[in-house]
Design brief:
globular, 2 domains, Pseudouridine synthase, 6 helices, alpha+beta
């Protein structure tokens, strides 16, 4: 039982929760212990495409984690969050309402190869520990900027304070950091209020299984092999 399994992760579930659900479903219905892992986390509040690796494919996690990703994101302007998303403490920043032309102009500055500093509440490791764990302990992890690529950044809707975008980015890009950087450039402040991943490499959310509907039958039929 080997292959890639595409799951549409619902909000409120960690990536580990999804792995555990698929693993327990397979064990319960087959009586066999099957290796299951994922190739890149989604925050609990985020939804969308999670690429699971089953059986011997778990050895290829590094390969799949480096794939480009596409997201649909909602950014709230006029306030900032301690965590960069809606889960943190929200503080009003600036009530000015930038025009759509101003927003488009700022978004155009965030395409191509750019430097981005991972968010303190990201899962990047600092000294062997996850940055978000240090941040939750009141510490300030020292994070270095890294080069990322934003292949495309499209404005899909804008009704202040909500700004919606669709973006394709390289692996290692943090959308909450992108949201904050956009807010800083606009002078309004901003935080990520919703996130949905729609593509990982050539894998598309349209072919993903809903987590609430999984069973051994559709897991086996849904496995993709390379």
């Amino acid at each position: 039982m080997d292959g890639i399994l595409l799951i549409d992760k619902p909000a409120g579930w960690t990536s580990h929760d999804v792995v555990a659900k698929v693993r327990s479903t397979l064990k319960k219905e087959t009586g066999q212990k099957v290796k299951v892992g994922h190739s890149g986390t989604l925050d609990p509040a985020a939804t969308g495409l999670l690429v699971l690796l089953v059986g011997n494919y778990t050895k290829r996690a590094g390969e799949f984690s480096k794939l480009d990703k596409t997201y649909e994101a909602e950014i709230t302007l006029g306030a900032t969050s301690t965590t960069g998303d809606r889960e943190g403490n929200i503080s009003p920043k600036n009530a000015q309402k930038p025009s759509k032309e101003r927003v488009r102009g700022v978004l155009s500055q965030f395409t191509g190869q750019i430097e981005q500093t991972p968010h303190p509440y990201s899962a990047v490791k600092v000294g062997g520990q996850r940055a978000y764990k240090l941040a939750r302990e009141g510490k300030k992890p020292q994070l270095q900027p890294r080069q990322i690529t934003v292949y495309s950044l499209q404005l899909t809707d804008y009704k202040y304070p909500l700004l919606k975008i669709k973006t394709k980015v390289s692996s290692g890009t943090y959308i909450r950091s992108l949201a904050e950087d956009i807010g800083a450039k606009l002078g309004t402040g901003a935080y990520l209020s919703a996130l949905r991943r729609t593509e990982v490499g050539d894998y598309n959310l349209k072919k993903a299984l809903l987590l609430k509907e999984i069973n051994t039958g559709n897991i086996l039929s849904g496995l993709v092999k390379l």
